Recover the amino acids of this structure.
């Protein structure tokens, strides 16, 4: 017996039908998560599909370790991205993964579109199409969560995914918020929800999963649990969270600042993980079935404008990436102002990275006279001016004029119209993550299938170069990036939180599969990883992606990076090498 | 929850007798629901078939073969610490074994003798 998720819940929003299929072979061959999702995307998404038409499917997939092992706590979403026009892939924790598996599924496929606002309630075997007109266009995604929490059963073992106004307005980088503080953030899943008039999805279930060898399971569980709890790096994630990186990256001069005009922010200390922990930390949270709990919430007391001595206290989540994008990248060094921006972005359901980078580009474009107050709707965007940025974010989500409409399609698109491409920091159409460490980081953004820092972690290669002074050749670098990305396909198919990548090594994974009745070798796992990466790359190419056509923003050559000068020739060479390697992945 | 379920040689949450849910949204934090081992257990008193008997040291012991699945005990527990096993249509009741305690890295739960 093999214990593997096999059931897929199919939902057709157009016909308001659902059915369940058993696809055991699919999970056997492609593991789960990213592997299964890319195959389902190939099946369900027609070539050249319009990302915002009913033909674009939404796939959610969890993996064989979900519900079994700690920190296997993420769900993979796949869709065609409205931001990049090719592969949309986003990972999210919260309770999403556990809830999907406990409801009995390995994957959920959502097709078609509803004519009127709808939300889906999936409780075990049953799916319900529920009226969502009353919660459509609600100002705050927190409120939507609160309402669904009261209306739906399954407290404690359920996930509530929902979009905010940004998704309804089809902003290309709208996110899906789950459990208030976790997100399917990047690449615009929120807009795909919006295009389907799908406001939210609630999933709940309570079941147990059989085992082939319960005794071995308990032992290996204990081993993994102990590793996780005792690992010093996990302790750091718990203490400070990802924002522990603000100070070190700033000291390294790798923290993109003011649209990467600089890579060092004079006010970084004030918005560092240490400062937030000391002055604002109100609560730590974990995704379901994770002992680490890296999620940090700041408690911010805000006065009401209307009345003296009248306050509300808000819990606002912060992370390294969001501190970078809505902090240093737009020159915000005041932690309270930064939290207000984070809160607004959460309430509206925007991807925080893309939003910050878009504001940074717009600020510089206005500085350079490429756009004026006619475009900005009367605003003078200034580094560090949070009040004005708050207004800009609302104009963006309300799509008040052509400029904000263009900005809502991403800066690749907006800079095509208004100019300023040299400093439009998007890679493959996706706005830049917060690492200006060197060549490897930027190469990773370019060749990674999601154009994300998490694809192949180039920044950590750069940091190694800085620490040891040992440089690699372009060939070695490209090889290393692609190998890392291929291996991560296994993690994202199981689906393990990447923060535990140092613990879930091949040997451990092989051991953990045994009580589930499955045998792998390191080689067989790595081979599957390459196969998944190849399938993702092929999907991108099918949808018109070309590595050698990628635009490289000039700015990255102008601002010096700690791992050494970044040369155009090196990037060009690496891109052609990468193309060859990805095309010929075994 | 998952630790508790593991005692039964299965993964998942269906047989867990400890439950965690948010206190009205996770921004408010969490509530851990678990039997507190009443000395005079209200759940036992309502059981029509005497499937529940007093446990030494507090709480109750379930005799599954006597249980008819009426759910009266679920409603009788004031703190909501009896859960329902949908797969077997029987209540899930804490046996106070303390297995879960080892899997709480932040010392939220612990075992204590009550007098
Ligand atoms: S380490 Fe953080 S993101 Fe990863 S599963 Fe745990 S709480 Fe979630
Ligand atoms: S569900 Fe079973 S144990 Fe509970 S009151 Fe009814 S018969 Fe007794
Ligand atoms: S289940 Fe509830 S009523 Fe029964 S002994 Fe435990 S706490 Fe008391």
């Amino acid at each position: 017996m093999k214990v593997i998720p096999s059931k897929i819940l199919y939902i057709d929003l157009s016909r308001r039908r659902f059915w369940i299929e058993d696809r055991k072979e699919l999970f056997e061959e492609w593991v789960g998560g990213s592997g299964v999702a890319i195959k389902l995307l190939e099946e369900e998404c027609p070539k050249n599909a319009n990302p915002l038409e009913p033909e674009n499917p939404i796939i959610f997939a969890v993996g064989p370790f979900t519900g079994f092992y700690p920190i296997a706590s993420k769900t993979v979403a796949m869709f065609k991205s409205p931001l990049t026009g090719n592969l949309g892939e986003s990972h999210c924790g919260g309770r999403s993964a556990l809830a999907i598996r406990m409801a009995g599924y390995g994957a959920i496929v959502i097709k078609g579109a509803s004519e009127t606002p709808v939300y889906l309630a999936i409780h075990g075997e049953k799916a319900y199409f529920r009226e969502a007109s009353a919660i459509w266009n609600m100002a705050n995604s927190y409120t939507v969560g609160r309402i669904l929490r009261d209306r739906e059963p399954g407290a404690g073992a359920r996930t509530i995914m929902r979009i905010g106004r940004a998704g309804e307005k089809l902003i290309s980088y709208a996110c899906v918020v789950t459990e208030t503080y976790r997100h399917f953030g990047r690449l615009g899943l929120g807009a795909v929800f919006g295009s389907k008039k799908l406001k939210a999805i609630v999933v709940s279930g309570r079941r147990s999963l059989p085992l082939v060898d319960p005794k071995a399971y308990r032992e290996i569980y204990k081993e993994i649990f102990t590793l996780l709890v005792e690992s010093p790096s996990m302790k750091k994630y718990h203490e400070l969270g990802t924002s522990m990186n603000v100070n070190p990256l700033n000291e390294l001069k790798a923290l993109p600042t003011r649209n990467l005009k600089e890579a060092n922010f004079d006010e970084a200390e004030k918005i560092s993980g240490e400062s937030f922990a000391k002055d604002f930390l109100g609560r730590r949270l974990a995704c379901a079935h994770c002992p680490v709990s890296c999620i940090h919430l700041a408690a911010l007391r805000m006065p009401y404008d209307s009345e003296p001595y009248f306050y509300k206290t808000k819990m606002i989540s912060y992370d390294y990436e969001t501190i970078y994008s809505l902090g240093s990248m737009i020159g915000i060094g005041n932690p309270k102002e930064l939290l207000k921006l984070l809160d607004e972005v959460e309430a509206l359901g925007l991807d925080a990275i893309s939003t910050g980078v878009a504001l940074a580009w717009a600020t510089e474009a206005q500085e350079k006279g490429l756009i004026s107050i006619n475009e900005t709707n009367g605003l003078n965007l200034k580094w560090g001016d949070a009040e004005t940025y708050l207004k800009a974010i609302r104009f963006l989500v309300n799509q008040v004029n052509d400029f904000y409409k263009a900005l809502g399609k991403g800066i690749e698109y907006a800079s095509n119209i208004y100019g300023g491409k040299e400093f439009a920091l998007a890679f493959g159409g996706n706005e830049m993550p917060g690492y200006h460490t060197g060549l490897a980081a930027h190469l990773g953004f370019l060749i990674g299938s999601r154009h994300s820092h998490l694809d192949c972690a180039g920044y950590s290669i750069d940091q190694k170069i800085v620490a040891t002074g040992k440089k690699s050749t372009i060939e070695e670098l490209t090889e290393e990036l692609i190998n890392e990305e291929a291996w991560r396909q296994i993690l994202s198919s199981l689906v393990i939180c990447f923060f535990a990548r140092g613990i879930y090594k091949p040997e451990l994974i092989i051991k953990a599969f045994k009580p589930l009745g499955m045998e792998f070798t390191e080689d067989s796992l790595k081979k599957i990883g390459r196969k998944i990466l190849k399938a993702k790359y092929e999907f991108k190419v099918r949808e018109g992606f070309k590595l050698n056509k990628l635009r490289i923003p000039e700015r990255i050559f102008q601002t010096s990076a700690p791992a050494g000068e970044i040369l155009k020739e090196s990037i060009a060479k690496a891109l052609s090498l990468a193309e060859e390697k990805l095309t010929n992945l075994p | 929850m998952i630790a508790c379920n593991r005692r039964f040689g299965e993964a998942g949450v269906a047989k867990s007798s400890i439950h965690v849910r948010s206190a009205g949204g996770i921004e408010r934090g969490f509530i851990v629901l678990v039997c507190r081992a009443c000395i005079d257990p209200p759940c036992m008193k309502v059981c029509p078939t005497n499937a529940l008997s007093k446990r030494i040291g507090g709480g109750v012991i379930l005799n599954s073969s006597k249980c008819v699945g009426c759910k009266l005990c679920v409603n009788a527990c004031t703190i909501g610490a009896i859960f329902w096993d949908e797969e077997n249509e029987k209540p899930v009741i804490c046996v106070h074994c303390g297995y879960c305690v080892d899997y709480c890295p932040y010392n939220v739960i612990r075992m204590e003798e009550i007098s």
